[in-house]
């Protein structure tokens, strides 16, 4: 979920038909805005969990609002702790390409010029390979099929490509796609948010991810964005080490729970 979609002062509830169709049950999303008042949000949340009709509500709130866990547990739904998302930021100026290292390793970054089938296949290949065993909030819920969760990531990446090919950065090794980042520009025009980013398993563990991030930095500067932001589950320590090395710092934490209607 993009950082912009988590902003606001209220508790919002909306249907999520794409996810519902994918997993074969009715799904809604509930978001407690970053600037909501905790005590009011707690009351609204418990009422909403009891009145909403969807079988599954995917609920997100700012992690510092520690009262909301108990509020959700006081509802008639069963609550599955699903993840904590950590948001990290870096000035775009810090993500600079190293042309010498790129040339030495046979690497380059590329932004597709169109959403042609070959580009789509390259994107899907990298996302499938890098996110294959990825633990996320869907996989926390035994009611949801893990394979369909991966399909969701593939869909999400393909939608970025279809929306605007410039929202995709590929890392190429000797003309083979080995890394991908999908992007969206925030509402204020200053943030370039990385929605998904990964490297194929075969090329991980040798410092190549930094080159993909530098390609994103190029895109940010080209679009006049001053900040690059990105998020992951708190347990994904490996990528957070890479972000710290690249100069990112954490600035937000968001809790996700799945609230299941009891039979
Ligand atoms: C996120 C991801 C791209 C990171 O890949 P990675 O290979 O670990 O990252 P790097 O390219 O920075 O490589 C760093 C590792 O290589 C090692 N390394 C070896 N040679 C290196 C070199 N010359 N320079 C830097 N690091 C080197 C480092 O020690 C480091 O290992 P460590 O984290 O255990 O200390 C990869 O884990 C991935 O695709 N994961 C699945 C998707 C995902 O989690 N995405 C993030 C959320 S969107």
Automatic annotation (TrEMBL):
- Record flagged with keyword Transferase: yes
Q: Which residues form the N-acetyltransferase domain?
A: 118-263
Task: Quote any Pfam family the record assigns.
Answer: Acetyltransf_1
Keywords on this record? Transferase
* GO molecular-function terms, A-Z: acyltransferase activity, transferring groups other than amino-acyl groups
Q: What is this protein called?
A: Acetyltransferase
């Amino acid at each position: 979920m993009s950082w912009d979609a988590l902003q606001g002062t209220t508790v919002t509830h909306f249907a999520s038909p794409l996810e519902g169709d994918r997993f074969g049950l009715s799904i809604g999303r509930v978001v407690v805005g970053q600037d909501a008042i905790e005590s009011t949000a707690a009351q609204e949340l418990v009422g909403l969990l009891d009145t909403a009709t969807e079988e599954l509500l995917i609920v997100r709130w700012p992690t510092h609002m520690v009262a909301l866990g108990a509020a959700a547990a006081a509802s008639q739904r069963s609550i599955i702790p699903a993840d904590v998302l950590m948001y990290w930021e870096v000035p775009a100026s810090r993500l600079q390409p190293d042309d010498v290292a790129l040339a030495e390793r046979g690497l380059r970054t590329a932004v597709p010029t169109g959403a042609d089938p070959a580009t789509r296949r390259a994107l899907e290949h990298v996302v499938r390979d890098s996110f294959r065993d990825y633990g996320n909030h869907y996989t926390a819920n035994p009611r949801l099929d893990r394979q369909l969760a991966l399909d969701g990531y593939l869909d999400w990446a393909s939608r970025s490509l279809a929306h605007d090919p410039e929202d995709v950065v590929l890392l190429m090794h000797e003309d083979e796609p080995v890394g991908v980042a999908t992007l969206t520009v925030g509402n204020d025009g200053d943030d370039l948010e990385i929605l998904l980013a990964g490297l194929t398993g075969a090329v991980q563990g040798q410092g190549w991810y930094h080159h993909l991030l530098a390609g994103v930095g190029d895109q940010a500067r080209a679009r006049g964005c001053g900040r690059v932001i990105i998020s992951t589950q708190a347990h994904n320590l490996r990528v957070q080490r890479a972000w710290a090395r690249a100069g990112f710092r954490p600035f937000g934490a968001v809790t996700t729970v799945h609230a299941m209607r009891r039979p």
